[in-house]
Amino acid sequence: MSRLTDSFRNIFKIEELKDRILFTIFCLIAVRLGAHITLPGVDFSQLDKGASSSNSLFGLYDLFVGGAFKNAAIFGLGIMPYISSSIIIQLLGAVVPYFQKLQKEGEDGRKKITQLTRVGTVLVSIGQASGMAVYLQKENVVAAGVSPFFFVITTVICLTAGCMLMMWLGEQITERGIGNGISLIIFIGIVARFPNAILTEVQMVQTNQHNIIVELVLWAFFIAIVAFVVLLTQGIRKIPVQYAKRVIGRKVYGGVTQHIPMRVNTAGVMPIIFAQSILFIPTTIAQFFPNTGFGDFLTSFFSYRSMGYSVIFAIMIIFFTYFYTAIAFNPRDVADTMKKQGGFIPGVRPGKHTSDYIDNILTKITLPGAIFLAIVAILPAFVSYLGVTSDFAQFFGGTSLLIMVGVALDTLQQIESHLTMRNYEGLMKAGGRIKGRTGIAGY
Questions:
Q1: How far is it, in rounded angstroms, from Cα 344 to Cα 238?
Q2: Across all residues in the chain, what is the average pLDDT?
Q3: Do 409 and 436 meet the contact criterion of CB atoms below 8 Å apart?
Q4: Region 20-33: what's the mean pLDDT?
Q5: Which residues pair with 263 in a beta bridge?
Q6: Which domain holds residue 22?
Q7: How far apart are the first and last CA of the chain?
Q8: In terms of domains, do 109 and 149 share one?
Q9: Does residue 409 belong to any structural domain of this protein?
Q10: How far apart, in whole angstroms, are the C-alpha atoms of residue 317 and residue 59?
Q11: 259 and 115 share a domain?
Q12: pLDDT recorded at residue 438
């Protein structure tokens, strides 16, 4: 414990690291403040009456934006339009030659992709803001006397501007702060719900609705799940790569053995987001057919706690895990790069044989990763049967826990890099370094 305390003290001895952490905290505070500033024309007193259901597409959206959607705040769209635009650009990079060319052009290509992503963010924001304006009007939370046309225009402008401001804050955190800014904005929105979830559990124990022993067992189970998710996030399969010696002028290059780290969960949290978004569509459609056989069937079958929902959800996660892994990791590109640099896997011929070898290993390690990911995703539904409140149950797995663990590990890894670079001890013992995730896809 004393060693860990010394490590945290060392953080504030490094002026640059201290400034980065304080800047990050300042930006995240600004994000949380924006989540409580209500849109113009909205009657705040009517928001609780028109709150969206947690078992809908709106509830999923509200989870990622830290309650800003339910608050009808100027940051109500969160950073999700930017995430959607980034995913679209990334998927286009797998099928459209123009985007494939940009991905291979280095820094210039990256700048162009960033510019296109920003343009896409504006377009997605306008579309989603228009939908949110219509939804708020339907929920009767618009103040009396406000023109519907004026409300739609101001809502679209404020929400789009709020999303662009959050995107800018995320980029500033990445550049001048610590950690991945976009991921941290999503992270802080999810974590903001955690204190209320704990408070609810404490109140249920105080009112004798929960037994203290059962509550302690639940917390022990929660800690075990967090540890399991950390192992899933950190798990890798190392493929050894040998580089031949090359003499260029008077210098000798190569002659070293490295490895390709193949993650058990290459796709990160994206399979859950894809599957959850699709499965929330039927329940959203059911809202347009109230008190009908068709609407009741969709509501019951795709209920969050139904067995049919859990089975379909798990199958879709396994499918999307393979799908997204195939997009995020291309064995052929890895094999070609190794061949150009004079690298080879011992016992495997360069070129197509290397590509097939890597693809075979990737397929094998993705299966247990996909199954474990599906188990983690459906855990909150089963935990809710034990009497755990819905607010606390969502932290027993699913999107919330995976994002929290992934972003926390990535941020700690960057802090540790700053410490070790300046000859301070890191947050972990030697040989147990934190391996974080970077980028939006992995969170």
A1: 14
A2: 79
A3: yes
A4: 90
A5: 236
A6: 1-192
A7: 28
A8: yes
A9: no
A10: 19
A11: no
A12: 44
The pLDDT value recorded for residue 26 is: 92
Give the pLDDT band (50/70/90) at residue 179: confident
Q: Could you say which of 396, 418, 433 is where a domain stops? A: 396
> Domain containing 153 — which CATH number?
1.10.3370.10
Please, are residues 360 and 216 in contact by the beta-carbon 8 Å criterion? Answer: no
Do residue 259 and residue 317 come from a single domain?
Answer: yes
Q: Which residue shows structure tokens 């290459």? A: 266
Structurally, how many domains does the chain consist of? 2
Give the number of C-alpha atoms closer than 13 A to the C-alpha of residue 205, restricted to the C-beta side. 14
CB-based contact 403:199 (threshold 8 Å): no
> Is 90 exceeded by the pLDDT of residue 348?
no
Q: What is the mean pLDDT of residues 305-312?
A: 80
For 269, the token pair is: 């949290």
Pick the range with the lowest mean pLDDT from 44-58, 157-171, 203-217, 308-322.
44-58
